[in-house]
Recover the amino acids of this structure.
Protein backbone atom coordinates (compact mmCIF):
# COMPACT_ATOMS: atom_id res chain seq x y z
CA UNK A 1 0.00 0.00 0.00
CA UNK A 2 2.68 2.46 1.10
CA UNK A 3 4.98 1.47 -1.74
CA UNK A 4 2.08 1.81 -4.12
CA UNK A 5 1.48 5.38 -3.00
CA UNK A 6 5.14 6.24 -3.40
CA UNK A 7 5.33 4.74 -6.87
CA UNK A 8 2.31 6.64 -8.09
CA UNK A 9 4.08 9.90 -9.04
CA UNK A 10 6.91 7.96 -10.67
CA UNK A 11 4.42 5.98 -12.70
CA UNK A 12 2.65 9.16 -13.71
CA UNK A 13 5.88 10.81 -14.86
CA UNK A 14 6.78 7.66 -16.81
CA UNK A 15 3.42 7.74 -18.55
CA UNK A 16 3.92 11.40 -19.48
CA UNK A 17 7.38 10.61 -20.84
CA UNK A 18 5.90 7.88 -23.04
CA UNK A 19 3.21 10.26 -24.31
CA UNK A 20 5.86 12.90 -24.97
CA UNK A 21 7.93 10.36 -26.86
CA UNK A 22 5.00 9.24 -28.98
CA UNK A 23 3.87 12.80 -29.70
CA UNK A 24 7.38 13.95 -30.60
CA UNK A 25 7.79 11.03 -32.96
CA UNK A 26 4.61 11.81 -34.86
CA UNK A 27 4.93 15.57 -35.15
CA UNK A 28 4.72 16.79 -38.74
CA UNK A 29 7.13 19.70 -38.30
CA UNK A 30 9.70 19.40 -35.51
CA UNK A 31 8.56 21.83 -32.81
CA UNK A 32 9.79 19.90 -29.77
CA UNK A 33 12.61 17.35 -29.35
CA UNK A 34 11.57 14.01 -27.89
CA UNK A 35 12.68 12.70 -24.49
CA UNK A 36 15.38 10.49 -25.97
CA UNK A 37 16.97 13.41 -27.78
CA UNK A 38 16.87 15.41 -24.60
CA UNK A 39 18.46 12.56 -22.64
CA UNK A 40 21.20 12.39 -25.27
CA UNK A 41 21.62 16.14 -24.93
CA UNK A 42 22.08 15.80 -21.16
CA UNK A 43 24.58 13.00 -21.71
CA UNK A 44 26.46 15.14 -24.22
CA UNK A 45 26.62 18.03 -21.78
CA UNK A 46 27.87 15.70 -19.08
CA UNK A 47 30.56 14.36 -21.41
CA UNK A 48 31.77 17.83 -22.30
CA UNK A 49 31.98 18.59 -18.56
CA UNK A 50 29.45 21.39 -18.93
CA UNK A 51 26.55 19.87 -17.03
CA UNK A 52 28.18 19.86 -13.62
CA UNK A 53 29.91 23.16 -14.29
CA UNK A 54 26.67 24.92 -15.18
CA UNK A 55 24.71 23.40 -12.32
CA UNK A 56 27.40 24.43 -9.86
CA UNK A 57 27.52 27.93 -11.37
CA UNK A 58 23.76 28.35 -11.01
CA UNK A 59 23.65 26.92 -7.48
CA UNK A 60 26.58 29.11 -6.48
CA UNK A 61 24.68 32.27 -7.48
CA UNK A 62 21.45 31.14 -5.83
CA UNK A 63 23.27 30.21 -2.64
CA UNK A 64 24.95 33.60 -2.31
CA UNK A 65 21.97 35.69 -3.31
CA UNK A 66 19.48 33.70 -1.27
CA UNK A 67 21.67 33.33 1.82
CA UNK A 68 22.55 37.02 1.90
CA UNK A 69 18.89 37.92 1.56
CA UNK A 70 17.89 35.48 4.32
CA UNK A 71 20.58 36.76 6.70
CA UNK A 72 19.47 40.36 6.23
CA UNK A 73 15.74 40.03 5.61
CA UNK A 74 14.75 37.69 8.44
CA UNK A 75 16.08 39.79 11.33
CA UNK A 76 14.75 42.91 9.61
CA UNK A 77 11.30 41.40 9.10
CA UNK A 78 11.19 40.09 12.66
CA UNK A 79 12.14 43.50 14.02
CA UNK A 80 9.57 45.26 11.85
CA UNK A 81 6.88 42.81 12.92
CA UNK A 82 7.86 43.08 16.57
CA UNK A 83 7.69 46.87 16.68
CA UNK A 84 4.26 47.53 15.24
CA UNK A 85 5.00 51.20 14.64
CA UNK A 86 7.89 50.44 12.33
CA UNK A 87 5.57 48.19 10.41
CA UNK A 88 3.16 51.05 9.88
CA UNK A 89 6.04 53.24 8.74
CA UNK A 90 7.73 50.77 6.42
CA UNK A 91 4.83 48.83 5.00
CA UNK A 92 3.94 51.30 2.21
CA UNK A 93 7.53 51.27 1.01
CA UNK A 94 7.58 47.49 0.98
CA UNK A 95 4.31 47.36 -0.91
CA UNK A 96 5.70 49.75 -3.55
CA UNK A 97 8.80 47.65 -4.13
CA UNK A 98 7.05 44.31 -4.01
CA UNK A 99 5.22 44.37 -7.36
CA UNK A 100 8.40 45.35 -9.23
CA UNK A 101 9.59 42.14 -10.83
CA UNK A 102 13.18 41.30 -9.98
CA UNK A 103 13.75 41.10 -13.73
CA UNK A 104 12.98 44.81 -14.02
CA UNK A 105 16.16 45.35 -12.05
CA UNK A 106 18.36 43.66 -14.69
CA UNK A 107 19.48 46.90 -16.41
CA UNK A 108 20.22 48.58 -13.10
CA UNK A 109 22.09 45.61 -11.70
CA UNK A 110 24.26 45.46 -14.83
CA UNK A 111 24.84 49.20 -14.54
CA UNK A 112 25.93 48.80 -10.92
CA UNK A 113 27.80 45.51 -11.02
CA UNK A 114 28.67 45.03 -14.70
CA UNK A 115 28.14 41.81 -16.57
CA UNK A 116 29.09 38.95 -14.26
CA UNK A 117 28.29 36.93 -11.19
CA UNK A 118 27.70 39.90 -8.97
CA UNK A 119 24.87 41.25 -11.10
CA UNK A 120 23.15 37.84 -11.11
CA UNK A 121 23.64 37.39 -7.38
CA UNK A 122 22.22 40.86 -6.79
CA UNK A 123 19.10 39.97 -8.78
CA UNK A 124 18.58 36.82 -6.76
CA UNK A 125 19.11 38.80 -3.59
CA UNK A 126 16.45 41.29 -4.67
CA UNK A 127 14.04 38.54 -5.62
CA UNK A 128 14.43 36.89 -2.21
CA UNK A 129 14.71 39.89 0.06
CA UNK A 130 11.19 41.28 0.11
CA UNK A 131 9.32 37.96 0.21
CA UNK A 132 11.46 36.90 3.16
CA UNK A 133 10.97 40.23 4.93
CA UNK A 134 7.22 40.02 4.51
CA UNK A 135 7.17 36.39 5.65
CA UNK A 136 9.08 37.26 8.81
CA UNK A 137 6.83 40.27 9.49
CA UNK A 138 3.68 38.21 9.13
CA UNK A 139 5.12 35.37 11.19
CA UNK A 140 5.70 37.74 14.11
CA UNK A 141 2.26 39.27 13.74
CA UNK A 142 0.83 35.75 13.89
CA UNK A 143 2.33 34.85 17.27
CA UNK A 144 -0.53 34.52 19.78
CA UNK A 145 -0.29 37.30 22.40
CA UNK A 146 -0.62 34.59 25.06
CA UNK A 147 2.69 33.08 23.97
CA UNK A 148 4.55 36.36 24.35
CA UNK A 149 2.89 37.09 27.69
CA UNK A 150 3.80 33.66 28.98
CA UNK A 151 7.40 34.27 27.94
CA UNK A 152 7.54 37.69 29.58
CA UNK A 153 5.96 36.32 32.75
CA UNK A 154 9.00 34.14 33.43
CA UNK A 155 11.29 37.15 33.66
CA UNK A 156 13.15 36.77 30.37
CA UNK A 157 15.36 39.60 29.22
CA UNK A 158 14.66 41.06 25.79
CA UNK A 159 17.38 39.01 24.02
CA UNK A 160 16.21 35.85 25.83
CA UNK A 161 12.66 36.57 24.79
CA UNK A 162 13.76 36.83 21.16
CA UNK A 163 15.85 33.69 21.30
CA UNK A 164 13.56 31.50 23.42
CA UNK A 165 10.06 32.64 22.39
CA UNK A 166 10.01 34.82 19.29
CA UNK A 167 12.38 32.71 17.21
CA UNK A 168 10.88 29.26 17.95
CA UNK A 169 7.37 30.66 17.58
CA UNK A 170 8.04 31.88 14.05
CA UNK A 171 10.34 29.08 12.89
CA UNK A 172 7.68 26.96 11.14
CA UNK A 173 6.36 29.95 9.20
CA UNK A 174 9.88 31.05 8.33
CA UNK A 175 10.72 27.66 6.90
CA UNK A 176 7.67 27.75 4.66
CA UNK A 177 8.71 31.24 3.56
CA UNK A 178 12.27 30.09 2.88
CA UNK A 179 11.02 27.18 0.83
CA UNK A 180 8.76 29.34 -1.33
CA UNK A 181 11.40 32.02 -1.71
CA UNK A 182 14.05 29.52 -2.71
CA UNK A 183 11.70 28.53 -5.52
CA UNK A 184 11.50 32.17 -6.60
CA UNK A 185 15.27 32.53 -6.40
CA UNK A 186 15.69 29.50 -8.59
CA UNK A 187 13.28 31.00 -11.13
CA UNK A 188 15.21 34.24 -11.19
CA UNK A 189 18.68 32.73 -11.52
CA UNK A 190 17.75 31.34 -14.91
CA UNK A 191 16.51 34.70 -16.13
CA UNK A 192 19.56 36.47 -14.73
CA UNK A 193 21.91 34.05 -16.42
CA UNK A 194 20.26 34.58 -19.76
CA UNK A 195 21.42 38.18 -19.71
CA UNK A 196 24.17 38.87 -17.27
CA UNK A 197 26.65 35.95 -17.41
CA UNK A 198 28.13 33.26 -19.63
CA UNK A 199 27.70 30.15 -17.54
CA UNK A 200 24.89 28.40 -15.72
CA UNK A 201 21.71 26.64 -16.78
CA UNK A 202 20.01 29.86 -17.93
CA UNK A 203 22.99 30.68 -20.10
CA UNK A 204 22.93 27.12 -21.46
CA UNK A 205 19.39 27.62 -22.74
CA UNK A 206 20.08 30.91 -24.50
CA UNK A 207 23.44 29.73 -25.77
CA UNK A 208 22.07 26.45 -27.17
CA UNK A 209 19.47 28.33 -29.15
CA UNK A 210 21.81 31.07 -30.38
CA UNK A 211 24.60 28.66 -31.30
CA UNK A 212 22.78 26.49 -33.80
CA UNK A 213 19.22 26.01 -32.62
CA UNK A 214 20.10 23.03 -30.44
CA UNK A 215 16.61 22.62 -29.02
CA UNK A 216 17.54 19.27 -27.48
CA UNK A 217 20.00 21.17 -25.29
CA UNK A 218 17.42 23.88 -24.59
CA UNK A 219 15.00 21.31 -23.25
CA UNK A 220 17.85 19.51 -21.48
CA UNK A 221 18.53 22.77 -19.61
CA UNK A 222 14.84 23.11 -18.77
CA UNK A 223 14.70 19.55 -17.45
CA UNK A 224 17.76 20.10 -15.28
CA UNK A 225 16.25 23.29 -13.86
CA UNK A 226 13.07 21.44 -13.02
CA UNK A 227 14.82 18.48 -11.44
CA UNK A 228 17.09 20.67 -9.30
CA UNK A 229 14.10 22.79 -8.26
CA UNK A 230 12.34 19.63 -7.15
CA UNK A 231 15.38 18.50 -5.15
CA UNK A 232 15.68 21.89 -3.45
CA UNK A 233 12.03 21.75 -2.50
CA UNK A 234 12.36 18.22 -1.10
CA UNK A 235 15.35 19.38 0.91
CA UNK A 236 13.45 22.31 2.40
CA UNK A 237 10.37 20.21 3.07
CA UNK A 238 12.37 17.69 5.05
CA UNK A 239 12.92 20.44 7.63
CA UNK A 240 9.20 20.51 8.25
CA UNK A 241 9.48 17.05 9.75
CA UNK A 242 11.69 18.21 12.61
CA UNK A 243 9.80 17.36 15.78
CA UNK A 244 10.04 20.71 17.49
CA UNK A 245 8.67 22.39 14.34
CA UNK A 246 5.93 19.99 13.43
CA UNK A 247 3.33 21.74 15.60
CA UNK A 248 3.36 24.59 13.13
CA UNK A 249 2.14 22.45 10.26
CA UNK A 250 -0.56 20.31 11.80
CA UNK A 251 -4.08 21.47 11.36
CA UNK A 252 -5.82 20.53 14.57
CA UNK B 1 15.34 33.60 42.67
CA UNK B 2 17.51 35.29 45.30
CA UNK B 3 15.60 38.45 44.65
CA UNK B 4 12.36 36.64 45.37
CA UNK B 5 13.64 35.48 48.73
CA UNK B 6 14.91 38.93 49.64
CA UNK B 7 11.68 40.76 48.87
CA UNK B 8 9.37 38.27 50.53
CA UNK B 9 11.38 38.15 53.72
CA UNK B 10 11.59 41.94 53.69
CA UNK B 11 7.85 42.08 53.31
CA UNK B 12 7.47 39.94 56.37
CA UNK B 13 10.04 41.56 58.62
CA UNK B 14 9.98 45.21 57.62
CA UNK B 15 6.58 45.91 56.15
CA UNK B 16 4.51 44.23 58.83
CA UNK B 17 5.54 46.47 61.75
CA UNK B 18 4.85 49.54 59.64
CA UNK B 19 1.31 48.34 59.09
CA UNK B 20 0.80 46.75 62.47
CA UNK B 21 -0.89 49.81 63.90
CA UNK B 22 -3.96 48.94 61.87
CA UNK B 23 -4.26 45.65 63.76
CA UNK B 24 -5.33 43.86 60.60
CA UNK B 25 -3.77 40.96 58.78
CA UNK B 26 -1.55 42.46 56.13
CA UNK B 27 -2.90 41.63 52.69
CA UNK B 28 -0.64 39.98 50.14
CA UNK B 29 -2.33 41.97 47.43
CA UNK B 30 -4.26 45.19 47.51
CA UNK B 31 -5.99 46.67 44.47
CA UNK B 32 -6.85 50.30 45.05
CA UNK B 33 -9.58 52.00 43.07
CA UNK B 34 -8.80 50.34 39.74
CA UNK B 35 -10.41 52.00 36.74
CA UNK B 36 -9.77 50.65 33.30
CA UNK B 37 -11.02 51.92 29.97
CA UNK B 38 -10.20 50.73 26.48
CA UNK B 39 -10.37 53.03 23.51
CA UNK B 40 -12.36 51.52 20.70
CA UNK B 41 -13.00 53.46 17.47
CA UNK B 42 -12.09 56.68 19.21
CA UNK B 43 -14.49 56.28 22.11
CA UNK B 44 -13.51 55.23 25.56
CA UNK B 45 -15.21 52.10 26.84
CA UNK B 46 -15.06 51.62 30.60
CA UNK B 47 -14.27 48.03 31.59
CA UNK B 48 -13.44 48.26 35.27
CA UNK B 49 -14.85 50.79 37.68
CA UNK B 50 -13.36 51.56 41.05
CA UNK B 51 -12.36 47.98 41.88
CA UNK B 52 -11.03 47.51 45.38
CA UNK B 53 -9.78 44.14 46.45
CA UNK B 54 -7.62 42.60 49.13
CA UNK B 55 -6.21 39.11 48.98
CA UNK B 56 -4.34 37.50 51.83
CA UNK B 57 -1.31 35.26 51.77
CA UNK B 58 -2.24 31.68 50.94
CA UNK B 59 -5.81 32.56 50.09
CA UNK B 60 -7.78 31.11 47.19
CA UNK B 61 -9.98 33.82 45.70
CA UNK B 62 -12.32 33.44 42.75
CA UNK B 63 -13.33 36.36 40.56
CA UNK B 64 -16.77 35.46 39.33
CA UNK B 65 -18.79 37.25 36.71
CA UNK B 66 -20.54 36.89 33.37
CA UNK B 67 -18.45 36.41 30.23
CA UNK B 68 -16.90 39.61 28.97
CA UNK B 69 -17.53 41.50 32.21
CA UNK B 70 -13.91 42.50 32.63
CA UNK B 71 -12.77 39.98 35.21
CA UNK B 72 -9.99 38.77 32.91
CA UNK B 73 -8.98 42.38 32.39
CA UNK B 74 -8.75 42.77 36.15
CA UNK B 75 -6.55 39.68 36.37
CA UNK B 76 -4.32 41.03 33.60
CA UNK B 77 -4.00 44.31 35.48
CA UNK B 78 -3.11 42.44 38.68
CA UNK B 79 -0.54 40.40 36.77
CA UNK B 80 1.04 43.51 35.29
CA UNK B 81 0.21 42.80 31.64
CA UNK B 82 -2.09 45.84 31.47
CA UNK B 83 -1.75 49.17 33.22
CA UNK B 84 -4.95 50.50 34.75
CA UNK B 85 -6.27 53.90 33.72
CA UNK B 86 -6.51 54.86 37.38
CA UNK B 87 -5.50 53.24 40.63
CA UNK B 88 -2.80 50.75 41.38
CA UNK B 89 -2.16 47.22 42.51
CA UNK B 90 0.17 46.64 45.43
CA UNK B 91 1.68 43.24 46.06
CA UNK B 92 3.73 42.88 49.24
CA UNK B 93 3.49 46.65 49.47
CA UNK B 94 5.14 47.19 46.07
CA UNK B 95 3.28 48.65 43.11
CA UNK B 96 2.95 46.22 40.21
CA UNK B 97 4.78 47.59 37.17
CA UNK B 98 4.89 44.57 34.91
CA UNK B 99 4.84 40.79 34.87
CA UNK B 100 7.06 39.13 37.41
CA UNK B 101 8.26 35.53 37.75
CA UNK B 102 7.11 35.57 41.39
CA UNK B 103 3.56 35.64 40.08
CA UNK B 104 2.71 33.33 37.24
CA UNK B 105 -0.30 33.65 34.99
CA UNK B 106 -1.91 30.44 33.77
CA UNK B 107 -3.80 30.86 30.54
CA UNK B 108 -6.17 28.40 29.00
CA UNK B 109 -4.22 25.47 27.59
CA UNK B 110 -2.93 27.60 24.71
CA UNK B 111 -0.30 29.00 27.02
CA UNK B 112 2.12 26.08 26.77
CA UNK B 113 4.93 26.43 24.24
CA UNK B 114 4.21 24.02 21.38
CA UNK B 115 7.87 23.83 20.33
CA UNK B 116 8.99 22.45 23.69
CA UNK B 117 8.45 19.01 25.17
CA UNK B 118 6.76 18.51 28.53
CA UNK B 119 10.19 18.69 30.18
CA UNK B 120 11.14 21.73 28.15
CA UNK B 121 7.96 23.56 29.11
CA UNK B 122 8.30 22.85 32.81
CA UNK B 123 11.97 23.84 32.72
CA UNK B 124 11.26 27.01 30.74
CA UNK B 125 11.43 29.38 33.71
CA UNK B 126 14.28 27.56 35.45
CA UNK B 127 17.14 28.99 33.39
CA UNK B 128 18.87 30.39 36.46
CA UNK B 129 19.22 27.00 38.14
CA UNK B 130 22.03 24.52 37.66
CA UNK B 131 21.40 21.62 35.34
CA UNK B 132 21.01 19.20 38.21
CA UNK B 133 18.58 21.34 40.19
CA UNK B 134 16.58 21.96 37.05
CA UNK B 135 16.26 18.24 36.33
CA UNK B 136 15.12 17.60 39.91
CA UNK B 137 12.52 20.35 39.78
CA UNK B 138 11.21 19.12 36.45
CA UNK B 139 10.93 15.56 37.72
CA UNK B 140 9.19 16.73 40.90
CA UNK B 141 6.52 18.71 39.07
CA UNK B 142 5.99 16.09 36.39
CA UNK B 143 5.08 13.71 39.22
CA UNK B 144 2.98 16.30 41.03
CA UNK B 145 0.74 16.83 38.02
CA UNK B 146 0.83 13.18 36.95
CA UNK B 147 2.57 13.50 33.59
CA UNK B 148 5.05 10.67 34.15
CA UNK B 149 5.81 8.88 30.92
CA UNK B 150 5.18 11.99 28.85
CA UNK B 151 8.46 13.79 29.58
CA UNK B 152 9.52 13.81 25.94
CA UNK B 153 6.06 14.38 24.47
CA UNK B 154 5.16 17.59 22.67
CA UNK B 155 1.97 19.47 23.71
CA UNK B 156 0.38 18.49 20.40
CA UNK B 157 0.45 14.88 21.56
CA UNK B 158 -1.30 15.67 24.87
CA UNK B 159 -5.00 15.94 25.69
CA UNK B 160 -6.54 19.24 26.79
CA UNK B 161 -6.45 18.28 30.46
CA UNK B 162 -2.82 17.20 30.23
CA UNK B 163 -1.84 20.47 28.55
CA UNK B 164 -3.57 22.34 31.34
CA UNK B 165 -1.76 20.34 33.99
CA UNK B 166 1.48 20.97 32.11
CA UNK B 167 0.88 24.70 32.25
CA UNK B 168 0.15 24.55 35.97
CA UNK B 169 3.35 22.54 36.47
CA UNK B 170 5.36 25.06 34.48
CA UNK B 171 3.95 27.82 36.66
CA UNK B 172 4.61 26.00 39.95
CA UNK B 173 8.13 24.98 38.93
CA UNK B 174 9.46 28.53 39.33
CA UNK B 175 8.09 28.52 42.88
CA UNK B 176 5.97 31.67 42.59
CA UNK B 177 4.14 33.19 45.58
CA UNK B 178 1.01 33.74 43.55
CA UNK B 179 -0.82 32.02 40.73
CA UNK B 180 -3.28 33.79 38.49
CA UNK B 181 -5.58 31.43 36.63
CA UNK B 182 -7.77 32.80 33.86
CA UNK B 183 -10.66 30.39 33.27
CA UNK B 184 -8.09 27.63 33.13
CA UNK B 185 -10.57 24.78 32.84
CA UNK B 186 -13.02 26.52 30.52
CA UNK B 187 -12.04 24.54 27.44
CA UNK B 188 -12.13 21.14 29.12
CA UNK B 189 -14.95 18.62 29.12
CA UNK B 190 -16.99 18.49 32.32
CA UNK B 191 -15.45 15.29 33.67
CA UNK B 192 -11.88 16.48 33.12
CA UNK B 193 -12.86 19.80 34.64
CA UNK B 194 -14.00 18.14 37.86
CA UNK B 195 -10.79 16.13 38.04
CA UNK B 196 -8.73 19.26 37.42
CA UNK B 197 -10.49 21.13 40.23
CA UNK B 198 -9.63 18.36 42.65
CA UNK B 199 -6.05 18.32 41.39
CA UNK B 200 -5.74 22.07 41.78
CA UNK B 201 -7.03 21.92 45.36
CA UNK B 202 -4.63 19.10 46.15
CA UNK B 203 -1.72 21.13 44.75
CA UNK B 204 -2.89 24.28 46.53
CA UNK B 205 -3.07 22.44 49.84
CA UNK B 206 0.42 21.04 49.26
CA UNK B 207 2.05 24.28 48.13
CA UNK B 208 -0.15 26.99 49.69
CA UNK B 209 0.25 29.54 46.95
CA UNK B 210 -1.98 32.58 46.91
CA UNK B 211 -4.38 31.93 44.04
CA UNK B 212 -6.63 34.27 42.12
CA UNK B 213 -8.89 32.28 39.84
CA UNK B 214 -11.15 33.83 37.21
CA UNK B 215 -14.28 31.91 36.31
CA UNK B 216 -17.83 32.40 35.09
CA UNK B 217 -18.91 29.13 36.69
CA UNK B 218 -20.69 29.64 40.02
CA UNK B 219 -20.33 26.02 41.10
CA UNK B 220 -16.64 26.11 40.31
CA UNK B 221 -16.15 29.24 42.38
CA UNK B 222 -18.00 27.85 45.40
CA UNK B 223 -16.23 24.50 45.19
CA UNK B 224 -12.75 25.95 45.03
CA UNK B 225 -12.32 29.22 46.81
CA UNK B 226 -12.12 30.77 50.24
CA UNK B 227 -13.85 33.85 48.98
CA UNK B 228 -15.88 34.52 45.87
CA UNK B 229 -15.69 38.05 44.47
CA UNK B 230 -18.91 38.55 42.51
CA UNK B 231 -18.54 41.09 39.71
CA UNK B 232 -21.23 42.92 37.81
CA UNK B 233 -21.54 43.13 34.04
CA UNK B 234 -19.42 45.67 32.21
CA UNK B 235 -18.18 48.03 33.44
CA UNK B 236 -17.25 45.54 36.12
CA UNK B 237 -17.67 46.54 39.74
CA UNK B 238 -17.40 44.30 42.74
CA UNK B 239 -20.97 43.54 43.75
CA UNK B 240 -20.32 41.42 46.75
CA UNK B 241 -17.68 39.25 48.34
CA UNK B 242 -18.93 35.90 49.61
CA UNK B 243 -16.94 34.00 52.20
CA UNK B 244 -17.07 30.24 51.61
CA UNK B 245 -16.75 28.90 55.15
CA UNK B 246 -16.75 25.21 54.32
CA UNK B 247 -13.69 23.04 54.95
CA UNK B 248 -12.16 21.01 52.14
CA UNK B 249 -13.03 18.46 50.86
CA UNK B 250 -16.38 20.10 50.32
CA UNK B 251 -19.63 18.20 50.30
CA UNK B 252 -21.43 19.74 47.36
CA UNK B 253 -24.80 18.51 48.55
CA UNK B 254 -24.46 19.96 52.06
CA UNK B 255 -27.00 22.60 53.02
CA UNK B 256 -24.31 25.24 53.59
CA UNK B 257 -22.86 24.68 50.12
CA UNK B 258 -26.28 24.97 48.51
CA UNK B 259 -27.11 28.02 50.57
CA UNK B 260 -23.94 29.84 49.51
CA UNK B 261 -24.31 28.78 45.92
CA UNK B 262 -27.93 29.87 45.72
CA UNK B 263 -27.06 33.14 47.42
CA UNK B 264 -24.64 33.88 44.59
CA UNK B 265 -27.20 32.80 41.99
CA UNK B 266 -29.61 35.32 43.46
CA UNK B 267 -26.93 37.98 43.67
CA UNK B 268 -26.29 37.61 39.97
CA UNK B 269 -30.02 37.85 39.38
CA UNK B 270 -30.66 34.30 38.31
CA UNK B 271 -33.54 32.49 39.92
CA UNK B 272 -32.88 29.03 41.22
CA UNK B 273 -35.11 27.46 38.57
CA UNK B 274 -34.26 26.86 34.94
Amino acid sequence: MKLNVRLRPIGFVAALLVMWHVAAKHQATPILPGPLAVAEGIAELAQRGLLLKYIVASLFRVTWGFATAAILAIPLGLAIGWYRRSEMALNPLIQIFRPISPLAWIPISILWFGVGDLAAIFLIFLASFLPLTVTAMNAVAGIPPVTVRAGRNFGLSQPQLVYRVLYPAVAPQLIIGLRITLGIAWLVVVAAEMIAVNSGLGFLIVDARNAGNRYDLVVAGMVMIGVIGLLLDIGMRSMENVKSLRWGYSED
Amino acid sequence: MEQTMATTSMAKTVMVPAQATKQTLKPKLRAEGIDMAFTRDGTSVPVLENVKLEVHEGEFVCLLGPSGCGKSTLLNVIAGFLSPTHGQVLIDGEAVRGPDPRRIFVFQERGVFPWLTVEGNIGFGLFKLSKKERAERIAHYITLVGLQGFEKAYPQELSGGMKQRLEVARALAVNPDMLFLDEPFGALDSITRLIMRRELLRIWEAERKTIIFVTHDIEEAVQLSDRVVVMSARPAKIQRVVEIDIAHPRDISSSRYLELRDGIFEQIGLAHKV
